[in-house]
## 1
Amino acid sequence: MVQPAYRMRKQTFLAKMQARIAIDDYRKLLSLYLPILIDQAFIVCLNVVNTAMISSSGVSAISAVNLVDSLNFFLISVFVAVSTGGTVIVAQYKGNGNGSMVSRAAASSVASVTLFAIGISLTMIVLHGPALHLLFRSASPDVFAKAKTYFIGSCASYAGIALVEAVCGALRGIGQSRASLVLSLVMNISYVLLNLLFINGLDMGVLGMSISVNAARYGAAAFALYYLVKKNKDLHVQIKDMIRVKFAMVRKILYVGLPFAAEQMFFNGGKIVTQTFIVSLGTNAIAVNAIGGSFAQLTQIPSNALALTAITIIGQSMGRQDVDGARKYARFFVWTSTVFLLITALIVVPLFHPLVALFHPPQEIKHDIFMIVLINAAAQVPLWSMSFIMPSALRAAGDSKFTSMVSLLSMWLFRISLGYLLGIVLHGGIVGVWLAMNLEWGVRGLVFILRFRGKKWYRHKLI
């Protein structure tokens, strides 16, 4: 009778230890997630405030900013994707316990991302006229003129935001999300304050927004570089490490980053094509799309933070070769994100009227905005998480080529073609375009879930 009792006590002890480890893991996750959540909340809310401020300059101003921002997202996503590759490599070396390689990966990420941004910036400043005319020639002359001013100003700021994103990505890779939060807040809060001065105070409209974005991003870049070299004691990065780039390390970063960059280019390129549908529907449709997008960003704040957290947590798990842990966290992130999306939808939809008043929309477009917000809120609860959280988990394990290919195909085969069919051919307008986007989430998410259930996604060797 003694032996079974001993075994029972031993099993109970082991179960308690496993529970304690799980609690410690989730405490670590929460300490990483909360700063990223605050960061995402500030970014989105400040973007909403910026959109509301520029809307005071008229429908043409908000339409111009929305058009250019669709092109900005397309271009910025390239070097942000490369910085995500840096985050994955840093996280895996951190999980592996190799401190010197963590430092090299961080330095190589900052250097390569900044160089990418400078190249894109110079190219687009030279080609700004043909690019805008090709994409948005059907826009009204007033909208087009303002879009040109804002686009040149935005391109000039790319190197600044690239350096900040690369530093924040490296910090998230080692689990220091609080430091990345501070850097992000410096950039975004200064941007809003400068917009208050130039847009509302000096009534400079789109030109004022262009000045603000450059001052905010380069100021934050200087602060990020100072923090990385002088203050951070974990990454041990020096200026010479960023100048003497290790190409072997850059190849590792690009192995993850380039497929993601290609995905983001084609994915956001698809959004630009969709934007051309919307431009053909008129200035009011562009404004509806911009305001509807702001509502979508609000409801997705907690889930977007989870997607960023997943890269670090799952990347470190794979660095330890803990596939079971990676699977556990991936499932946890997907289900938690789904719950968050339900909660935010139940909060934002009832508050539609006071929130939409911030954007000063004409009365005739409020119904379309509400329909977009309602359809999007209902669709994203079951579909968004498996479409966006799951690829973050797969990418953190090095499965970036597959996730990129799926995203490209689903965008061009479903969202664009279906959006044109529902929005233009069947005269569904802006509501039809958004409905096609929601349906594409389901197609893409199903493929990612099937991939996750197999074994190929975790068999990539990055370090």
Note: The CA atoms of residues 11 and 17 lie 10 Å apart.
## 2
Amino acid sequence: MTTLSSGFARARRWLRDHPLAFDATLAFCTLVAMICSSFTDPGDGHGPPAFGARTPELFSVLLMTLTAAALVLRRRRPMQVLAVTAALAAVEYVLMDPPAPVVMSTVIALYTVASRTDRPTTWRVGLLTMGGLTAAAMVFGSTPWYSQENFGVFAWTGLASAAGDAVRSRRAFVDAIRERAERAERTREEEARRRVAEERLRIARDLHDVVAHHIALVNVQAGVAAHVMDKRPDQAKEALAHVRDASRSALNELRVTVGLLRQQGDPEAPTEPAPGLAVLGELVATFRNAGLPVEVACADRDRLPAAVDLAAYRVIQEALTNVRKHAGAGARAEVSVVRVGATAEVTVLDNGRGSAGRRPGAAPGGGGPVGGTGPEDGGPGDGDGQAGGGHGLVGMRERVTALGGALTAGPRYGGGFRVHAILPVEARTGEPDRPGTAGGTGLRR
């Protein structure tokens, strides 16, 4: 049984891949069926049909052969094949009595037309074929017009039209489902690519913040150590210790950030929490050790969501880094984080005069470019100073706007610079809070 079914499946696949061979086989089988039926006399209706009671005329055999041969082209020329078979069937009804079953080929041709055209065309062509052949059988046949053979022509042609239309509808339904599935698959792939791009952008921002902050501190402390190495070796050792601490912190944060790129199942997945306002005191201490006085005012209220907490920490980190790089000697900074209704406001101020390498266009006496806005905000600098490509401010603004907040940066009246971020407490990033993220606003000062 298994061998038989597998052989039937192979034959079916071969015929489906070779439609012309299938149509030729169908035409041959139709011809055999018509010839066998032409030897059968249906009788007067009171007894069973008698096989061999009559013999078809040579003209009828010719018509049956022509209509069967026309079926070979039913897929390529469906309307033409239907016209030829219907015309030959009508000729059989008009000239021969009793007629041979040439109409079998017309039924198959009508089914093909109905399965390959639209429904209005099927209705028009089907009604025309049904009416024409039934009228020819009723008018020119020797049997009464109400005989079952005449109504059989009407029934078989109508059935062919209905079956072909049903097959066409089912084929269209299956194609629609397949197209919808393919569209959904493409949508999933596009969504996956979009999420990957967003994750890469977020990781790139984290890497920029970590590297810019710690490398700036390492650069400052290394310069101090080189300056006092000969005269005050104890202070040089202290500066080198700060360099070591800053580099260690940079490596740790880089390990955490790059660890996000690990594939599932990779060993030593990162478990360290992401930085937040809970460790703001340690961040401020690194700047104080680098020679930048920083005053902090932070209202210890409700815990912030993880995404908002991280964004506030990164804004403060980037702003203080730029103060240290560009505000000049003797600059001081102030940091404040307060809850105002449903938002958290982060402000970083400095009173610096600016360094010689600052971007031209700063206001006289303008302070350090703590993420200056550049041309669009009227500020003098960017998050990377003159050497960078402006990624500091761009990163801060992207972080804030991704949460539905707003960020402004520019010179202060009377000198200095100001960065102000408004973050909604209800983040709209769609990212779930990462486990272990420090979300409190309390400080270790």
Note: Strands lie at 40-41, 50-51, 294-298, 333-340, 343-350, 406-411, 417-424.
## 3
Amino acid sequence: MEMVSEQTSMEQSRIVRVEAFDGDTFGITLESGHTVLLELEHRIKEPAFAALIESGDFCKPYNDGKAICWPGGVSITLEEILEMLLSHGNRAQNQNN
């Protein structure tokens, strides 16, 4: 039950800050005060992200409150971020069982 309430609060939250860490990891700070570490290693081979890496813009994200954005129109919404985190958590849990 706690996961549902946490999910709802994250969905209603806004992104207040995003910063690039090493390689493919980003720190996302929400207005709730929660910080999310998002790894995009599984997405960096997609053409849009590969182009960002090649241009050097991959490590220069910004946000509009609802999404992480990059130059050229590439973005990931907070809802997509939450889905990625939940699916990653489910994969990790399944590997531990």
Note: The radius of gyration is 14 Å.
## 4
Amino acid sequence: MFFAQVPACGGPCTEGCVTLARIGEDAWALGDSKRPDVEPLRFTTEELDAAGIDPARFGLGA
């Protein structure tokens, strides 16, 4: 499956970033750019919200 990952960093992205991609109507993939070989974790919009992760920070709409 191909999806565009959008990075979000707490500072300069020199050591890696968290990446987020919408992979379905209510499905998201959260990855680590330092470990691109590791399968991203998958979450629903409700789970992201409960974890305090806002797709808008990544420039993505919920």
Note: The longest helix spans residues 45-50.
